[in-house]
Amino acid sequence: MLKCRFTLRVAMIASSLFCLLSCTAQAGNKTSREQINEQLEAVIATVRTGATTNIRDAAAEHLSDLTRQVPPSEIDHKTIADIVSLLDLPIGRLWVASSLANIGPPAKMAIPKLQGLLVVEDCLQLAGLSASFAIRRALERMGVTPPPFPVPCPKISSPPMSTE
């Protein structure tokens, strides 16, 4: 019985090492920076095209986790620009702003878009759910002082009601 367990453990360790070595050999031609950016781009694609809003939001949260673990200097400008473009999507905006905060000064290209979204998000904050605090944190991490909260909300007229 002990010999069987030992043999099974050795086989498991050997197969794990084989998988590890083959994965390393495949990734051996790519630098760590390229691998990081490819992983981020894959998550960005899921945020954009996930099958459901839950999948897209979970991917945006994962993006925030990844950017917290990666040194900002390892993220290239194209990937940062792709992250900034995700701010146009309402799903996951809180996590995207958090990702930009994690990146900090290298993501300064996001400042105008973040400032524009802040007015809208501050008004949404009054209603409950908003990315307002994440946007403020991102702006602060990029060296910009956000305006005081709350900013007067612009008056938004409601669309006319249908009489049918």
List descriptors:
164 residues; globular; disordered C terminus; mainly alpha
Would you kindly provide a written description of the structure presented here, covering whatever features stand out?
With 164 residues, this protein is mostly helical. It has seven helices and no strands. The protein has a domain at 33-141. 66% of the residues lie in helices and 0% in strands. It is globular, with a radius of gyration of 22 Å. Residues 4-27 and 158-164 have low confidence and may be disordered.
Q: What does the average pLDDT come to?
A: 79
Share of helix among residues? Answer: 55-70%
Poorly predicted runs: 4-27, 158-164
Structural class: mainly alpha
| Cα separation of the termini | 78 Å
Main beta-sheet annotation = none
How many DSSP-defined strands? Answer: 0
Number of helices: 7
What is the rounded Rg? 22 Å
Estimated share of beta-strand residues:
under 5%
Shape label: globular
Question: Could you give the order of the helices and strands?
Answer: HHHHHHH
Summary of the model, kept short:
This protein has a domain of 109 residues.
What's the topology here?
Elements: H1 2-27, H2 32-49, H3 53-69, H4 77-85, H5 93-103, H6 111-127, H7 132-141
Helix pairs in contact: 2-3, 3-5, 5-7, 6-7
